[in-house]
Design goal:
Helix content: 25-40%
Order of helices and strands: HHEEHEEHEHEHHEE
Strand content: 25-35%
Structural class: alpha+beta
Low-confidence stretches: none
CATH architecture: 2-Layer Sandwich
CATH topology: Translation Initiation Factor IF3
Mean pLDDT: 86
Largest sheet: 4 strands, mixed
Length: 275
């Protein structure tokens, strides 16, 4: 992979100011709600700052056979690479802040109005650090096996619940697949007019595409030596392609147990008294 562009100078200045000097941090920024902020602190973490990464990417062209279900591999690779670039730059900002991880990560995609072939991929979230590790100057047990900040799309509440139950996030994992669904021939269309009948080419195509995306997400989790993935979500998008071309994108947070004797507290019932 080519060298990534450096963090912009204004971003470096912003991050340096929040990092502070002499081990004393200054102002932090965060997209956490008040409840999330308090729960993150109660779990032993502190917000280090709001971090962002982006990539404006040119999406290439790929043709497909009219009557064939097939993956559009060039488009699949382009969309995955663009998201990966945005995630990596976000992680670099967290590294500059000396953070142990990023929570509440969100990935956004939008097409540029001046060119439909260009899309901006943005990754953003709140970088956090473990209070005790920073105070004692010890290596954080919450970083990844290669010493980088973990990433997670968990909310502050879910992050607190996960830690209290004896688990921790090791990374945000994702998989995608851009797929072309075969068109019907005129004969097939005419035969199905007025009939209740399954459209097997659509069923099989969409099924295959989802499975490929899920499989790739699971491979990422296996590389992190995770026990499982929580909060899995699948998104569908077409991004202005042909009506028969669609992307399935799945994402979740890979987790591992913190200790072998972890205890999951019994849930308590809470009744809301608000309208």
């Amino acid at each position: 992979m080519a060298d990534l562009p450096e963090i912009p100078e204004h971003a470096k200045e912003r991050l340096k100011e929040m990092r502070g000097t002499g081990g004393k941090r200054t102002l932090f920024t965060s997209d956490l709600s008040v409840n999330e902020f308090l729960l993150v602190k109660e779990a032993g973490f502190e917000p280090a700052g709001f971090v962002v990464g982006s990539s404006i990417y040119h999406i290439g062209f790929q043709s497909a056979k009219w009557t064939k279900n097939e993956e559009m591999q060039i488009l699949t690779q382009a969309l995955y690479h663009a998201r990966e670039l945005a995630m990596t730059r976000m992680e670099e900002e967290a590294q500059e802040l000396g953070a142990d991880g990023i929570i509440g990560v969100r990935l956004r995609v939008r097409h540029m109005s001046w060119n439909s072939d260009l899309a901006e991929f943005v990754a953003l979230g709140t970088a956090v650090y473990h209070r005790d590790s920073e105070k004692n100057g010890t290596a954080s047990p919450f970083r990844t096996h290669d010493g980088k900040p973990f990433t997670s799309d968990l909310s502050g509440q879910d992050f607190w619940t996960l830690l209290k139950s004896g688990y921790r996030p090791v990374g945000m994992v994702m998989g995608n697949c851009v797929y072309h669904i075969a068109h019907q021939s005129f004969g097939q269309w005419f035969k199905n007019v007025g009939q209740n009948v399954e459209m097997t080419n659509f069923t099989q195509g969409l099924y295959d595409a989802r499975e490929l995306a899920m499989e790739r997400m699971q491979v990422e989790a296996e590389h992190l030596k995770a026990e499982g993935i929580v909060g899995v979500d699948i998104h569908e998008g077409s991004y202005g392609w042909s009506t028969n071309v669609i992307e399935f994108f799945c994402v979740g947070t890979a987790i591992i147990p913190i200790r072998a004797d972890h205890h999951i507290p019994a849930p308590s019932l809470v009744l809301s008294v608000s309208d």
